[in-house]
Amino acid sequence: MTPEENDLITRVEGDAPMGKLLQQNHWIPAERAARLEPGGAPLRVRLFGRNFVVWRADDGRVGFFDEACPHRRASLALARNEGNALTCIFHGWRFDVSGRVTAVPTQATKPDEFAARVPLKNYPVREAGGIVWVWIGKGANEGAPPPQFPDFQFTKLAPHQVVVASSVIDCNWVQGVEAVVDAAHVGILHANFLNKFVGYAKLTAVAPPVYDIDRQNYGFRAAALRDLGDGTSYVRINEFVMPWYGFTSPNDPKLPHRTLFLSVPVDDTHARQWFLRYNVEGEGDKEFGFGLKNYDPDNFTPFADGPDKMWGQDRAAMKQGSFSGFGDNVLTEDMVVQLSMGPITDRSEEFLSEADLAIVHMRRLLLQSVRDWQAGRNPVGAGPGIDYANIRATGGIVPKDKVWRDVLPKGASDSLEAQRAATASS
Amino acid sequence: MKEGEPLGVELGKTPVCVAKVGEAAYAISDICSHAYAKLSTGFQEGNLVFCPLHAASFDVTNGKFMDPPAEADVPTFPVKIENGEVFVDVGE
């Protein structure tokens, strides 16, 4: 990768092409739905270097405005939230949740005509899967048709089924996406966690994997194949969905719990990482599959100390059985190695190896999407026509004389659903 | 075989990358001359195959390196196509 290509995939502020294409072609996860109280404080949200506020009206509807009041640019995070409207505390200008300007007390002459001309920027939102999504592309605040919504399986589950958490991390969004796409680190960085876990994931420590990438119109399926030495391979398939979604292979596909990671640009040097744990059949697992308790869902991966103290890495523990020095919190381990690369890592100085193939494919896709955008084509990985609803990360044992793409095909091939179907027909 | 999807095979002890260009097929060593990586897991554009790891490239028709960081050519192997099957002579 050249320095120019590195800039093209990472930079998202102002006129940067990647920022423009992402905002235009994708719905953006913006806030945790349960965090918004009816009539509660408007919350600041920063995306792509732009500042917004998100808020819930008394009647439950969600509003999403530019943070700066269109009058004199005071922050609407200070505004009163009542009567399904925000009232700026500075001069009392009032903005209904539907985007209509309903009061302009500083305009004595023809206030209604004047109010109709006030350029309030409000954006369409959708609430699904425990997340408030927003579209902030060109024309979004003028009623332009939005892009295809990513109606993943989890977006159709009831609120109690989906556990949502996030953290803002002080580095570029692409490092966050790579943390999930890179399967090569699991057996090493997360050795502490694997030692405690009984299940398929433990097999990741058994043998180094061979990777096979199967391109899809939404991104790719990344299979890691590990020879078990008995005529079979253990296959873990992660699904990368453009532009930033990583569904990880479930540790036990017969159980209904699933995990999704995503990394959304806040600006060039900050990203919001989202962690979703959902149960396709019942109550979501609040412990995320590894015993996490007592966490703040909006600051999910706090560090024990700052960067100058290596984020609290415990050297004494490393001499006594801890591989990484970060306890057994896999998310902290992931965040720390990403952060340690710097605010925007220079990929032109890397030297990749065989097991980095998934990362190579992911970067190619991101670069291709920018080149498509610059050439006026629909960017790769953007809708319409993407079947988000049937994407499933899966895994299992595959006999060595069979092809994993046939044994574990894409689509709703969940072991759970497949087993159901198999039992129903027998 | 499809153009744009190189195939990696082990023939005897020799890793080979077979690539289709138009109606013809070519075979070169599957190991990049820059660092140990399988060219067949990389990307083909026309008659060039790009190594996935560091973006070196090689002309499949003659094994010559094109893009850095490659600094050396890769061996080529004779190919014949008979009745729709591709045969490669690795000289073992």
- Major beta-sheet overview of chain A: 8 strands, antiparallel
Q: Provide the residue-averaged pLDDT of chain B.
A: 93
Helix content of chain A: 10-25%
Q: Note the quaternary state here.
A: heterodimer
Beta-strand fraction estimate of chain A? 15-25%
Radius of gyration of CA atoms of chain A, rounded to a whole number: 23 Å
Shape of chain A: globular
Q: Ends of chain B: how far apart?
A: 24 Å
Structural features, described:
The complex is a heterodimer of chains A (426) and B (92). Chain A contains eleven helices and 18 strands. Chain A is an alpha+beta fold and 426 residues long. The N and C termini of chain A lie far apart (53 Å). In chain A, strands 11, 12, 13, 14, 15, 16, 17 and 18 form an eight-stranded antiparallel sheet that branches. Chain B is mostly beta strands and 92 residues long. Chain B has no helices and nine strands. Chain B has strands at 7-11, 14-21, 24-29, 43-45, 48-50, 57-59, 76-77, 79-82, 85-88. In chain B, the strands form three sheets. A four-stranded antiparallel sheet of chain B has the order 1-2-3-7, with no helix packed on it. A three-stranded antiparallel sheet of chain B has the order 4-5-6, with no helix packed on it. In chain B, strands 8-9 form a two-stranded antiparallel ribbon. Chain B starts with 6 loop residues before the first strand and ends with a strand. The model of chain B has no long low-confidence stretch (mean pLDDT 93). At the A-B interface, α9 of A face loops of B.
